[in-house]
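Box 3.1. Reading complex inputs
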Amino acid sequence: MTLFDRLWRWLAGHCSLIGRAGVAACLWRLFVLSRREIVADASPLHRFGDRCWRRMRRELGVRVGAAPREYLLRLFLLPSPAAMAEQARREADRIRRRQRAAPPGLLRRCGQLARRPVVWLRALLWPYFDRLERRLAGLDYPALAQRFETRAALFMRLHPLLRGSLLFCVPFLFALAATTPLSWAEQLVFLGVMWLFAMLVRRLPGTLPTLILMGLALVASLRYVWWRLLFTLDLDSTTEVLLGTVLLGAEAYTWLILLLGFVQTLWPLGRKPAPLPADPASWPSVDVYIPTYNEPLAIVRTTVLAALGIDWPRDRLKIYLLDDGRREEFRAFADQVGVGYLTRPDNAHAKAGNLNRALSRTDGEFIAIFDCDHIPTRSFLQISMGWFLKDPKCALMQTPHHFFSPDPFERNLGTYRAVPNEGRLFYGLVQDGNDFWNATFFCGSCAVIRRAPLLEIGGIAVETVTEDAHTALKLQRRGYNTAYLNIPQAAGLATESLSSHVGQRIRWARGMAQIFRIDNPLLGKGLGFFQRLCYANAMLHFFFGIPRLIFLAAPLAYLLFEQHIINAQAAMIALYVLPHILHASLANSRLQGRYRHSFWAELYETVLAWYVMRPTTVAFFQPAHGKFNVTAKGGLVEKDYIDWGISLPYLIFLAFNVLGFGLGVVRLFWWNSYEPGTVVLNLIWCFYNLVILGAAMAAASEARQVRLAHRVRMRIAATLYLPDGRTLPCETEDFSLGGLGLRLFHGEALAPGTRVWAALHRGQQEYAFAADVLICRDDRLGIRFLALSTEDEARLIQCTFARADAWTGWDEQMPADRPLASLRELLLLGLQGYRGLFNHLLTRPALRWLRRLRSNPVWDRGQG
Amino acid sequence: MFVVSLSSINGGVGRTTLVAQLASLLARQGQTVLALDADPQNLLAAHLGLVDASGGATPGWAGQALVFPERDWQALGQRNSDGVSFLPFGALDSARLAALESGLRSDVRFLCRQLAALDLPADTLVLIDSARLPSSFAGQALAAADLCLWVLPADPASLFCWQRDAALAGAETRRGHLLINRFDATRPLQSDVLELFRAGSGSRLLPYLIHRDEALPESFAANLCLADYAPDSQAMHDLHGVAQWLRQQAASHRPALAAAVATTAA
């Protein structure tokens, strides 16, 4: 007898079924049929099931023996009688309190509103608004800001005691502003005044206005927090209290992250490179480590060849290829180009172990580390080493990770170089902000570390899967400084698919959670207060998973189940939550606008939330759990597809939100027309969630990616040598290691296959590469290099990826952040997501089916 | 007046072509230009479009200098459609050429004087196509020049001659600059030689070089200046750079001159 058979018999016995009954009968017995007749000889399973059943009937108000349809209706659509009675009682109370009739339906209300004199008044006043607007636009804001800053500087000239006592008052003033009780009208006026002030301050350039915007955001948020804690937690049922507390927890997390984020990015340092001594003989020795595990040689060789071109005294620069894959072709390549090749017998501790092993076998004073797909520019060391000589306590210099290929978001959403990508915020702002507090952390690549301090902490940390951040934390605990230079001096390929992107973020999240558990930056010795905050924020930031999912589900509590998880009137919620969101957005747009457009964080986090939730939670409770997974790079996506695996959790959220939205509309007009404000508020929230989820679906629709060698858009001066002896000046439009896209200054007619030479200029030098014409259309020319020798390949890399100025000014043409435009953009992306979903789910299968029908010979005959 | 001589150590390096093209380009840019042929080959006139059907009977300054050394050259000037004024060398048989050469050897500042006597507008740029070294014509040109461009191809022979003769030619002085001509990046040897030139005389090297470009001889064959024949060619692109550099040099030279005049006056 198989296990299945045995299980089945057991189940059938419990359901009082005899013999081998069908599944339907069993299910019928289990869930639908009244079981009075079998209660007599009920098994424990039955008794438990029955209890649940009875409870559910009571809650839903369903008669015994009702049809399943009734259950479903009650469960998802109709409010339960108890809730309805409760609702009615609450409503009656409210009406009694207000001494007025129940408000009319929303549509009628809107109609009334439109007819109100306010609208006419506004129309009358419009010319004055317009004039004010123009007056404001005409002001000389830079001069104003200047005057403002000089006034503010007076503060620094006050007596220290006076200054200290004034500063001491600041928290109290904030508390006062946050906790003064205001009626709704007063709160409205307060909101209005703050908003006007913010809109004015927003136009002033400089750091001080940014600080003011942050202060305003803080006041608005604190007011919200105070109101939320004191006036909205009076919930009725246990379920509501439970759900309300969960929501409050999620909100508390965002408040904390907002506050920590403000502290962290209070004053981005914007460090400049320190000059090196004029005499290269006094420059220190550097070992360049390029760790690799399973990446193909084609990717690694580019990095090695670029590293060979780094401008540094030859006798003091050694390059090592650390091959954890122990591959023979890598050894041969290393020998050929003359770099060190280091391997080890095991792969313990992955990359960290690999680096540590190399550490014991080389002797440079400094270690520069590049992931095998981060191509350094020639100026990397000259730019980054200066601070080590200037500050002997400086143990780490980190530079940004720059990517010359679109990351999955950029590719799938089509926002490459139009919207700052996910990493920009971190490398553009957060690390620069950290640097102000001396809390920059190591990011695993494109960095230089001083050997002595690294040895002092026992090498690269191996306790967690994010060895980089942990290493920096250990260095800082020993009192060493870390520094950040926001100048891209190396670039690499972004992850090629959303799933690998998610995999990488899972690792980061898990590692950060591990560090937070085993070496919590808030505790322990050696760190300053703000360093602790910065590190804590970096780690806490990765716990966004659960709160994000809670926000995605929160409006459903009301829309599906009519649970009021915030006990307040919709209008009051709007009055408090809107300024909080508005001012936080304004401040963040000001702070982060260049590096992340408003609302984009929602999308980035939503996509990751589900996946980050589990590893962070597990790692938080069991830090030893978890392993290192390597991020795959440089692949192809052969055809469009939706990554169903990644998007499944979101599809479920999406389905529920769609359901909730539909029900919400029903509630608005029929079921809950006595509280339209609440319904509308939840509908807006739900709609926003739907937009973000749609955009997440768009991000999960993998767009085709066919080129093996990524084409990088860059303009480089070039010369084209034609076979007839003429020479033409031109510039590159894009380059790859396989060929060039050129733009001539004049149309040419070159047959495909024509042998030409393209010379790329680098400073005063130019290097020529033999190539064949692939395509020539007027002044655009595509050429493909003939087989390049290793020497030529190195030259090509020197002329392209490794140019000193290759990546500077990369994001200067990035459009500035405009919060409303950004919201609109997300809305359109959401639509795109739904369209894609529809396409993949319905249109394509239908087309396939039609094709199959058509290719069917029987069909053809039928046609004939 | 800012006098630039284009000189060479080897022959056949494309110097005359460069003088003609630079003069045309500068004139088109609105610069007052005088091109002066100081090479007995007497080729500049042809490069500037003077097609002489009578077989070299066009009068040049050389013939006049032999007979009337003190007479000024106003009447000898020619002007082409690009607005370039130029003074041809003129046809001279070998005996008279030898006589002129020996005469000039004793009077090093002859060309200087004659240029001053022309009474050119203050902003004129004079380009002298100077004969290859060693020659008394080249000596005249060097004596008259405020700036000397040594035209060199990036080949080993020219590098060898340069290393041997540079000091002799007085090229290492402040006035001497190197202009690499007919550079071809597809030849590894040329790139290497260029590197050696750069290593040997770094800042003396012009920031621009002229690429090997078939469009230059083609434009001569078509009797057109390059700006008309192949405005988008690499050589034209390079010439624009050199012309701009020359104008900058001229502009920075003038205040120095003015200052010198002021101090002598005081």
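In summary: The radius of gyration of chain A is 32 Å.
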